[in-house]
C-alpha cells in the first residue's frame, strides 16, 4: 500500500499553511521534520482526513480524499495526535477494547486484537493498570497501541516522543520501527536522534512547503548526528 499526497494545499483565509505538497510514501518509517509552524501538524491532519485540503488529494490505494468516500481511507488509518492519552480511569486493556469497538472489530475478535496491540507496545504486563497511573512514556505507548488497532495500512504519529526522556524515546522509537515493517508510518518530530537510525525517508518542511524529501541515508554522511543536525538547521534557517 502506498500513500500519495498530490499537490496538497491548506489555506485559512488568505494564509497558506500547507503549500502544494506532493509526497509518495510506501511501507516503512517516514520522518516529517520542521520547526513549529512549518505546517507538519496540518499536513498530518489532512492525511488523517481531519482537515479537508483546499486543493489537491490524499490517496491510499484506491481510497482518495477528499474526492472519494472518506470512509474507505479512515478504515485503513490509525492516528495519534499531539497531547493525547491524558489521565484516564480506564485500564490499558479497557481503553484498547473501546478502540476495537470504535473501529467496529467483531466482539469475538476484539480480545485477540487487544492482546496483539499490547504485545506490539510491550505493555502486556500493564494490561490491567489504569492509564492515569502509568508514566508519560507508557501513556504514549498506549496511544500508539490505539493507533494500530485493526492493523491499519497507514499510521500517523504526531510528535509521539514529545516530553519523554531519553530511555522512553528509545523504547518508543524501537516500537515504531517494528510497526513500520508492515505499514506506512508517518512520524512528525523535531528531535533528530529519534529518527537518525530508523527512518527510511526524511521530509523537511518550512513555511508550509517541502524543502527536501530523500532517503535517510542520503541526508547525512554515515549516520553522523552532527552532520544530520547541521544540514537540518541549514534547511530550516536556524
UniProtKB/TrEMBL annotation:
Keywords: ATP-binding, Nucleotide-binding, Transport
A Pfam family recorded for this sequence: ABC_tran
SMART domains on file: AAA (SM00382)
PROSITE patterns for the chain: ABC_TRANSPORTER_1, ABC_TRANSPORTER_2
One Gene Ontology molecular-function label: ATP binding
Domain ABC transporter positions: 3-232
Membership in a protein family: Belongs to the ABC transporter superfamily.
Protein's recorded name: Multidrug ABC transporter ATP-binding protein
Organism the protein comes from: Corynebacterium bovis
